[in-house]
Amino acid sequence: MTATYFTGLLLGFGLIIPIGAQNVFIFSQGLTAGMPRALWAVVAAGVCDTILIVLGAVGAGVLISSVPGLREILLVGGAGLLIYLGVSSLRAKVKDEEEAADPDVVSVRGVLFKTASVSLFNPHAILDTVVIIGATIAAQQMADRMAFTFGAVTASWVWFLVLAVGAAMLRQFLTPRRRLWFDRVSGLIMLFFAGLLLFELGKSLA
After folding, report:
1. Nearest to 45 by CA among 67, 28, 64, 57
2. Global pTM?
């Protein structure tokens, strides 16, 4: 059981560590809001990933793969969301960054909503995490599936916490203007991922 848990843990890290819109958003929260405010993003992302992994464990991946047109809908929705978040980051100003650093100004509801959006409306998270982890869980012995699932879930929570804490530690070395430039770089990264999703959409429709 222990070996199965660590196998799930390694697979979870392998899927979650590569840079993506979700990771960029959580890192930016740690950088702009600091701790413990960034924990709201960690909790939201962790809960969303847990939901997706559990859905994969109960076989939702097979259902998702079999629904015609669902992949294209997810690609359009994900691209639209990333374009919105990317443009918002590019339009940020120094004053906005200074206000974001104030715990009284940070909107917990806004952080939870944006984190959930980046997590649940991310086509790669749904198609890759649900389908890949779901298929891997299904390949395990029945007695080992719970441990494997728990290992994959643990990887998500640990990684999101590491991102937020690491960003919060860097925060003290960055001025509001430098954090502004990071925000703009984050915006460009999100627009880049939006472009990739639209490219995939174009290939699917060709």
Report:
1. 28
2. 0.72
